[in-house]
Amino acid sequence: DCQMLLNQLKEITEIQDSAFLHAALKAANGDLMEAVAFLTEERAQEPAQDAAAAEPSAWEGSAVGRQLPPDAATALTPHNKADPRAAAAFRPLESPKAPAAEGDAADRPQEAHSAESKNRSKRKRCEVWGENPKQSDWRRVGDWPVGMKNIGNTCWFSAVIQSLFQLPEFRRLVLGYSLPQNVLESCHSRTGKRNVVFMQELQCLFALMLGTRRKFVDPSAALELLRDAFRSAEEQQQDVSEFTHKLLDWLEDAFQLAVNVKSPGDKSENPMVQLFYGTFLTEGVHEGNTFSKIETFGQYPLQVNGYRNLNECLEGAMVEGEMDEATASQSAKYGQERWFTKLPPVLTFELSRFEFNQSLGQPEKIHTRLEFPQTIFMDRYLYCSKELIRMKREELKRLKGKMALLQQKLERYMKYGSGPARFPLPNMLQYVLEFVATKPSSSLRSPAEPPVPDAFSQPSGLVSRTESDPQGSALPFSQGLLEREDPRTEDGAFFLAESEPRQRSRASPQPSGSPAEASERPAPHVVSEEELNLVRTCLQRWRNEIEQDVRDLKESIARVSLSVEQMYCDPLLQQVPYRLHAVLVHEGQANAGHYWAFIYDQPRRSWLKYNDISVTESSWEELERDSFGGLKNASAYCLMYISDTVSRSVADGAEGSEAGQFQKEVEALPPELRHYVQEDNWRLEQEAEEWEEEQSCKIPQMEPSPASESQDLSSESG
Questions:
Q1: If we measure between CA atoms, which residue out of 576, 614, 617, 621 comes closest to residue 600?
Q2: Would 435 be classed as within a structural domain?
Q3: CATH number at residue 14
Q4: Contact 147, 219 (CB under 8 A)
Q5: Which regions are flagged for Polar residues bias (predicted)?
Q6: Is residue 365 within 8 Å of 666, Cβ to Cβ?
Q7: Cα(17)–Cα(539) distance, integer angstroms
Q8: Which domain does 23 fall in, by range?
Q9: How far is CA 666 from the centre of its chain?
């Protein structure tokens, strides 16, 4: 547990000194959030000027301020002291999962923030390069995707933005966003101005993610604009799902300004609505009255608890109560079905893995396992398939009922008996058969000696009056059973088979062992050859019959189970495939944790893991281990699927190398964004050269860097 907490602290704070982190954890008595707060306060004591200089220029040279009228830019800067809400919009954003930390940047003087905005483009070399002596630690390698800096509990932002950025259609929408000057001038609401500025900062961030030579980018500018949405007292405990909702709402509103130029108020023309939003129809019966309504959805919520896989989750969300042809004709008071009438190109499922524990008075995370496929067919949830699906559901209901009956029959054979300890009936008959066939040992006591009770020859409590001699002396149970001339001999053998395991409830009877052990096993005292043959014949026949019954039951259950599994494998229900694009993962508990994303890379045809500044190659096996849940406290909380049409367009665009595709997109950028990327790359080379000069002056005995590396740097700088 300590190592897990240390790993989480490393990911959240980006501090790699294990001893320092361990000391902080010890000072916080093992409380992760207190340790994070302690480390954050330690970092906050650094001079504001140094912190500002360590950040990249996300405003300088960006689209912000170029297209906005002067009054809009003034309204959104902290210099407008008359509007504290406008100033608060530029403070660093806190984690959406944790309460706002007291004194966090809210008390920072506005003058310090002004200096920060002016000096962002001037990084401090000691902070950028001091801990990274190797170029591979800070320089992007070829066309490898870039990571995103965690600026303090913002791993959730990185996971969401990376998943969206890797959608080519969404990336093109953001980078191609523009508004006519007259629309900008007519935008007077603070919300509208904020949304436009956020869109333009997102453009700058996406442009850097396309063309930067850095290994990771800094999202501070875009995050500052989001802070105000999470600052209100009633929304301090928002989670990443709420953030994603707000993000899509902001982008939708920003695009609506452009749509209103040609089609005022027409949301159907909004590209965000077209890409992420769908509709579903709800039909049902409430207190005997039928109803139907159409609703719009963006992220479709699904309850995880009680389900094994994604299709079961969807089926549970689409059907509530009993909805069939009989129900539709008012045979029930409540029940409803949902059917998708329009699916969006990007289909997002929001997995509800948190629930509120009433007894503890706090939220808890659900760690149960939930499997999901790489391709899901949505035909079975579409309104156009309603009649066929209703027939399938009725057949499925009948098969599940049949399977339950078969399993009950099988259980009667495999858990035979009337006491608390029960055993498979075929095994019990086999043990009785072995007992009957066992010959008495030569070391048996004389008949005059009183018998010693044991689990086989004379179980306690199994001597009855029917097995006693006329004088009332008890005979051994097996002797009484086999010596008496009673036509119910077979029933007696059955009674013996049932009673044997009851006396050995702690351990199931085992087959015979070595010959030496077999000679000491209990055996009938007196049994004639005729009796032995009769009992042996009956037991063997019954055992064969029962084993055949068990085999038949298992085969029937397997056939029914296969029919259930293949119920929706009808080719008619495999016309609308959706491919898994991204999986957003949360590790931790309800009140703290870490987020990252697995995203499928079409050009490389492999899964990549985006974990803050780190982007590494992964696999479906690792994704299963980290995302399905049930094994540890990491599990998926959001699944992003894309339609087959979008998937093919992504694949077609990725036929060449990703570097070539990104280079084409960089060249297609608007001039101001292209210049912004070039400027940042130029600063990177300047920082690298200055850092190398400092290192050569600081340690003169060190050999200079290889000539090839210097030539590479100078050529890139040129």
A1: 617
A2: no
A3: 1.10.8.10
A4: no
A5: 457-471, 707-718
A6: no
A7: 72
A8: 1-39
A9: 33
Whole-angstrom distance between the N-terminal and C-terminal Cα of the chain? 51
Closest CA to 212 of 152, 160, 169, 148: 148
Helix or strand run (H / E) with residue 437: helix 425-437
Residue 677: inside a domain, yes or no? Answer: yes
CATH number, domain at 625?
Answer: 3.90.70.10
What tokens does 353 get?
A: 């893995």
**How many Å apart are CA 531 and CA 524, to the nearest integer?**
11
Q: Residue holding tokens 């630690």?
A: 137
Mean pLDDT, contiguous 10-residue spans, the chain (718 residues): 73 75 80 73 47 37 42 41 39 36 36 40 41 67 90 86 93 91 83 88 94 92 76 48 81 89 84 93 86 89 87 90 51 78 94 81 84 95 94 93 94 88 89 85 50 40 38 39 40 42 42 52 84 89 93 95 92 94 90 90 93 94 92 89 82 60 84 92 88 72 48 41
User: What's the structural domain count of the chain?
Assistant: 3
| Cα separation, 145 vs 29, whole angstroms | 39
Catalytic residues: 155, 594
CA 351, CA 370: separation in Å to the nearest integer?
10
Say whether both 665 and 619 belong to one domain: no
Q: Do 677 and 626 sit in the same domain of this protein?
A: no
Instruction: Give the Cα-Cα-Cα angle 81, 86, 90 (nearest 5 degrees).
Output: 105
d(CA 132, CA 185): 46
Residue whose pair of structure tokens reads 């994070």 in the numeric block: 36
pLDDT at residue 400 in the model: 93
Q: Please tell me the predicted confidence (pLDDT) of residue 442.
A: 59
Whether 636 and 670 map to the same domain: the answer is no
SS3 per-residue string spanning 351-368: EECEEEECCCCEEEECCC
Predicted local distance difference test score (pLDDT) of residue 406 = 95
319-355 residues labelled b (16+ CB within 10 A) or e (exposed): beeebbeebbeeebeebbbbbbeebbbbbbbbbebbe
